[in-house]
Design goal:
407 residues; mainly alpha; 18 helices; globular; Alg10; endoplasmic reticulum
Length: 407
Amino acid sequence: MQTSRSLWRNAFAGLICVAAWLFALIYAHAMHPQVADEAVHIPQIQDFLSGHLAMSAGLAMLPGYHLLVAGIMKALTLHSIMSMRVISAVFGLASGVTFYCIRRSLGDASAFVYASQFFLFPLLFPYYFLVYTDILSLALILAALLSALKQRHVIAAVILLASIGVRQNNVIWAAFLPLFVLWPDINKQSFKQIALSKSTWRILLPYALPVIAFFAYWAWHGSISASSKVAYENPELSLHPGNVYFFLFLFLAFFPFQAWTGVRKMFLVIRSKPWLALLFIGAAASIKLRGSPDNYAFADYFLRNAVIAFVHGGWPRYVFGLLVVLGFCSIAFTRFLLHQSWLLYLVCAFYLCSYWLIENRYTMIPFALWMVLRKVENDTAERWTMIGWFIISQFFVWGIMSHRFML
């Protein structure tokens, strides 16, 4: 009986994903105009296809994504913009499959259903059908995590090296993965035992490859950004909390059922420690969302910029601060499949703070890693979340492809 029910759940989840993917792909095919940053990425791929290897002055990241897409298109004799979008959509499928493999490796019997839910996440789904680097970057980080969990650290390190060729600051995950794998031993053994253990160095040494490659590139190029023209968007050696605030706000918006569970637990804690309420109110009042100059342009097109402009001052600022604090308090009560997953919060905060420009795209990897490692507590809430995401994702695809708005 349970097996039959699970099969029906998997079939339903799979059907929703396939339908959503096909609908969006068909709509993307019908809408040929380039969307936002596609105006940078598409010409770069076309240049590579034509044999011109010069990099665009507007390209902040290394051209690993562009070279890969151009190579696939060259091998398959493809040339159209739609071909580029289909290849990116396949990267999206790969990220969903990798998410499923991670959940299965962690013993989740409902891995297929939650991988389907992840696939429909509205902050990811529209980008499957755009010529953007983010989905390939996400797929590579998930693949590196899967390899690390399977103790294939050389493979994980090579995948991380490839991911740096797509987005340079993915080097941060080269610190997270060995720490994540070693943490159970760190808790049980002394520092000396850990440092002298051969197994420790077998885990650590492969991850030196992407780290050394990153710093070698930085020293040679003189800048982390591939182009000095856009380097101002993310100043080096500086941290900015804007994307952390935005992440917590988005968590509250897209995980309402899960957030409500966390908020209820928070109020129970406040009842026993009332002084925490004053701390949270003070934190909410001190929060102000500040982005780069680009975050204050085209607020009638970019939804994120509209939000930033709206909460810039007055009472919306304090409401936003309260929502951020509620998001923090609710996500803090997440239960994970692996005890050391709390480390994710520290590394994700650092990763998000490395960006000055506030972008929902920068939250993709932190959200994906949180989702793949969390323990699901309420199946009914997750099913309603999935149905809601299906509707929102289709709406986002329609709005983006028809040039009505951009996330």
